[in-house]
Amino acid sequence: MLNYQIIPVTPFRQNCTVFWDAETKQGAISDPGGDLALIEQFIDEQGIVLEKILCTHGHLDHVGGVAALSAQFNLPIIGPHKDDLFWIEGLPEATKMFDWPPVESFEPDQWLEHGDKIEAANTFFDVIHCPGHTPGHVVFFQPQDRLALVGDVLFQGSIGRTDLPRGNHQDLIESITKRLWPLGSDIRFVPGHGPMSTFGLERQTNAFVADNVLG
Predict the structure, then answer these.
(1) Cβ atoms of residues 69 and 45 within 8 Å
(2) Dihedrals phi, psi of 205, to nearest 5 degrees
(3) Helix 36-46 to helix 66-73 angle, to the nearest 10 degrees?
(4) What is the helix, strand, coil percentage profile of the chain, to 5?
(5) Rounded distance, CA 41 to CA 19, Å?
(6) Which residues pair with 189 in a beta bridge?
(7) H helices within 104-210, ranges in order?
(8) 30, 55 in Cβ contact below 8 A?
(9) Which of 75, 74, 79, 40 is nearest to 59 (CA)?
(10) DSSP states of 29-56 as a string?
């Protein structure tokens, strides 16, 4: 069974997720947006050996620590989809807008496509391209543990904003309803911000994408 720990980081309280195999201690990290000392402390305490970094999308609060963490531990960077390149290239400028510590842009070792499979923490994740919040946003889904790392596509009671450059509201709704809902109502998900939920609960109660809202 996959072990995981959510570590809120940055002033935006973004959910960085560390996950690892309990027996081998092989691990990976998704969306290390910042506060690397906090992340490193947890990794050291658990004895986790990081093998790679996964990125759901290119926004600063999700990838602000990627370049530094990759350099420090010599970790390959996996994702997001190449349509988020413009966000990653713009990271240094974004830090000025948000009064953020300096951040370097980076080139992922692997851009992801819908349908890819990624090995991490001694298990496999399905890659699901879910544009809308950003054009290159991806979701990482672990089918055996029924767990999804959804970034800023979906939240408990809400959905990702689409008013930022190259966001698209209709694309986001279709990503959720056509690519996430079919995975099953029992799927637990880690959102980019806030508490976990399940797809089933959101289909019942989410004011933006509940079944009775969309008809």
Answers:
(1) no
(2) -125, -15
(3) 40
(4) 30, 30, 40
(5) 14
(6) 148, 197
(7) 169-174, 199-205
(8) yes
(9) 79
(10) EE---S-HHHHHHHHHHHT-EEEEEE-S
Q: Please list the pLDDT of the chain residue by residue as tens digits (215 residues).
A: 789 999 999 999 999 999 999 999 999 999 999 999 999 999 999 999 999 999 999 999 999 999 999 999 999 999 999 999 999 999 999 998 888 889 999 999 999 999 999 999 999 999 999 999 999 999 999 999 999 999 999 999 999 999 999 999 999 999 999 999 999 999 999 999 999 999 999 999 999 999 999 97
Q: What is the largest CA-CA distance in the chain?
A: 49
Q: Are strands 188-191 and 147-151 parallel, antiparallel or unpaired?
A: parallel
Whole-angstrom Cα distance, residue 181 to residue 126? 15
- Token pair 């089933």 in the structure block, residue: 200
Distance CA 17, CA 75 (A): 16
DSSP annotation of 153? S
CA dihedral 103, 168, 136, 2 (to 10 degrees): 90
Name residue, tokens 């400028």: 93
Tokens of 9: 């980081």
Give the contacts of 19 (CB within 8 A, at least 6 positions apart): 2, 3, 4, 5, 27, 28, 29, 30, 120, 121
Tell me the C-alpha distance between 72 and 122, whole Å. Answer: 22
